[in-house]
Specification:
The structure is a single chain. The longest helix is centred in the first third of the chain and has 16 residues, at 42-57. By secondary structure, the chain is α+β, with helices and mostly antiparallel strands. The chain has a single domain (6-153), classed as Gcn5-related N-acetyltransferase (GNAT) (Aminopeptidase). The protein has helices spanning 19-32, 42-57, 116-130, 145-153; strands spanning 6-9, 63-69, 72-83, 98-107, 135-138.
């Protein structure tokens, strides 16, 4: 049986259709770790995220995959490539000259658990490997258990942990 969605390669021209998909990620962050509140608004989160994506599209080897059902975007994955020396990886681990970063992976709640996240991540990895990049990193909130299970099932392992001390928290 084929998947109910279609995948296509996107571009910077697709940034505006990603806003509700990013909002779903932002909501998942807040739901999975309410103890880290206060969170910024959806509009502020998207403003910052959109600017990041625009910057990434100005670089080579950035890839966006968009999943749709009947022309309705239901998920996306975005990855880019960094020179290893410009990352936190170089002073500790032996890797290739370039590292791929899975910047974002979003699946609308009603499609989570359907295999879409796995397909998006696998296709991003294939694209990065075709670009000559074998070493990959991604970030995930430690409380996002579903995402952690997906990433670990696909071979990712905890590597680096950020702790935060932000004003406004109890």
């Amino acid at each position: 049986m084929s998947a109910p969605w279609q995948l296509r390669t996107g571009s910077a021209d697709d940034l505006d259709i990603l806003e509700p998909l990013w909002a779903a990620v932002h909501h998942r962050h807040a739901e999975s770790m309410p103890e880290l509140q206060p969170y910024v608004s959806d509009a502020e989160s998207w403003r910052v995220r959109r600017a990041l994506y625009a910057d990434l599209f100005a670089k080579p080897d950035t890839v966006l995959l968009v999943a749709s059902v009947d022309d309705r975007p239901i998920g996306y994955g975005l990855a880019h490539v960094l020179e290893t020396e410009a990352t936190w990886v170089a002073d500790t681990w032996a890797t290739g000259r370039r590292v791929g970063e899975i910047e974002s992976l979003s699946v609308l709640p009603e499609f989570r658990g359907s295999g879409l996240g796995t397909e998006l991540l696998t296709k991003l990895e294939e694209h990065l490997r075709a670009s000559g990049v074998d070493d990959l990193v991604l970030g995930v909130l430690s409380g996002n258990r579903d995402a952690l299970r997906l990433y670990e099932r696909l071979g990712y392992r905890p590597t680096w942990l950020y702790l935060s001390k932000f004003t406004g928290r109890d």
